[in-house]
Amino acid sequence: MHQILVVEDQPDLRAVLRTTLVAAGYRVVEAGTAARALVEARSHKPDLLLVDLGLPDGDGIDLIRAIRGWSVAPILVLSARTRETEKVLALDAGADDYVTKPFGTDELLARVRAALRRAPSDGHHRSRLVFGATVVDLERRQATGPAGEPVHLTPQEYRVLDVLARRPGLIVAQRQLLREAWGPDRVDDARGLRVFVKSLRDKLEPAPAIPRFILTEIGVGYRLASDVVEGTTDTTDS
Ligand code: CA
Q1: Which three-class secondary structure state does DSSP give residue 122?
Q2: Separation of 64 CA from ligand 1 center, angstroms?
């Protein structure tokens, strides 16, 4: 049974989170302040942390940085803030993904499952990606289209797919994808990345104009739908 540390200062929201997570089969530890969260994180070693960005005794981003100093457990940010820059800051500080308040139960639980799947204890090998009728074998560096025809992907495209596939269902920040695709010199080329992703969608998505598998999180990054990765179909979603 996975244990989740919920860091949220609003008691009513904390209670809702607890009820939701316990009903889904998780054990829950709670903290209402950043200081308390550090104590609980050290003593309980939770499998995942849900962290509110606005805490009474400090910024959630500083808390994430502090926890990342010694823990690799997945961190999901809870944020009422819609500004992309704050989401990017949280991801840079070491968060794995975010859920924007107000959020639905299904969305929250889907993100929690995706984040727990990427945990280092999960040794699942993700080498086959299924985009409808187009299949990519990351290990062999081969792709085939709906009629079995070869689909040509560039080494950069394979590298980007590698990065996305390591975190199915979770956001990957633009800068990380840019670093993987082109190296550290072009990490700010968001426009270049958009063109790159469009070309990748043209090759892989059944309907590239309405992406179903390679999803955009505007101003923040991209997310590979979790059912692209074979063996990680999210059967508990309904
Ligand atoms: Ca708050």
Answers
A1: coil
A2: 15
Question: Is the domain defined by 3-118 classed in CATH 3.40.50.720?
Answer: no
User: Would you tell me which CATH number, out of the four given (1.10.10.10, 3.40.50.970, 1.10.3370.10, 1.20.1050.10), belongs to the domain 128-228?
Assistant: 1.10.10.10
What spacing in Å lies between the alpha carbon of 10 and ligand 1's midpoint? 6
3-class DSSP state of 214:
strand
The CA distance from 217 to 80, in Å, is 16
Chain centroid offset of residue 150 CA: 30
Ligand 1 centroid – CA 1 distance (Å): 27
pTM for this entry: 0.79
Domain span(s) for CATH 3.40.50.2300 in the chain: 3-118
Below-50 pLDDT ranges, the chain:
121-123, 233, 235-238
d(CA 72, ligand 1 centre) in Å: 24
Q: Under 8 Å CB-to-CB from 69, ≥6 apart: which residues?
A: none
Q: How far is the CA of 30 from the centre of ligand 1 (A)?
A: 13
Residue ranges of the chain that CATH labels 1.10.10.10: 128-228
User: Reduced to 3 states, what is the DSSP secondary structure of residue 121?
Assistant: coil
Task: Please give the single-letter amino acid code of residue 30.
Answer: E
Per-residue model confidence (pLDDT) at position 81: 64
Tokens representing 92 are 């840079």
Q: Say what the pLDDT of residue 238 is.
A: 35
